[in-house]
Amino acid sequence: MYYDFAVTVTAGKTKNTPKEQTLKLTKGVIHYVEVNFPAGCRGYAFMTLRHQEHQVWPTNPERAFSGEGYTIPMQEYYKLYSEPYSLKAVAWSPDATYDHTITVRIGILSEEELEPVKETTNLLQKFLKLLGGK
Predict the structure, then answer these.
(1) Which of 5, 46, 48, 96 holds its CA 20 to 30 A away from the CA of 88?
(2) Percent composition of the chain: helix, strand, coil (DSSP 3-state, to 5)
(3) What is the side-by-side order of every strand in the sheet holding 2-9?
(4) Considering only 15-29, 48-62, 104-118, which range has the smallest mean pLDDT?
(5) Total-model pTM
(6) CATH number, domain at 122?
(7) What distance in Å separates the CA atoms of residue 74 and residue 56, rounded to the nearest whole number?
(8) How far out from the chain centre does Cα 90 lie?
(9) 16 pLDDT more than 90
């Protein structure tokens, strides 16, 4: 399953008074996350993604995603097994003149659905080890 969310950040929103939007999902493993900053953001819009009140992306809590005409793709393995099955997008844009819409896309599968991917990865790692890799 893939989810697509538009998060519109009002110009002038500060980090202390951010736009917060709940991204309703389902139980499973988040295997893919994408954050798109369209052209025009010019690095003025910022976003973090949280599970409950814990910042998950970016991993370092003192930082936030930002960009200009750029999509940040992330291959992940984040279990979402307890309610609420949601993330919270937290965004701000203190120096912007215009509102900005940041798009968040999330892929979720059950562990059973991810098992073939895990098996393929394990086989590839074994093969590389045979070739002298790590």
Answers:
(1) 96
(2) 15, 50, 35
(3) 2-9, 100-109, 28-37, 70-80
(4) 104-118
(5) 0.83
(6) 2.60.120
(7) 12
(8) 11
(9) yes
Length in residues, the chain = 134
In which domain, by residue range, is 25 found? 2-130
The tokens 């203190």 sit on which residue?
94
3-class secondary structure, 21? strand
Between CA 105 and CA 32 the distance in angstroms is 8
User: What does the pLDDT read at residue 118?
Assistant: 62
Both tokens of 77, joined, read 């393995």
- Is the pLDDT assigned to residue 117 strictly greater than 70? no
User: Distance (Å, rounded) from C-alpha 109 to C-alpha 21?
Assistant: 22
- CA distances, 60 to each of 7, 65, 68 (Å): 21, 11, 21
The count of structural domains within the chain is: 1
Burial-class residue 72 by CB neighbours within 10 Å (0-12, 13-18, 19+). Answer: middle
Residue 116: pLDDT band (50, 70, 90) is low
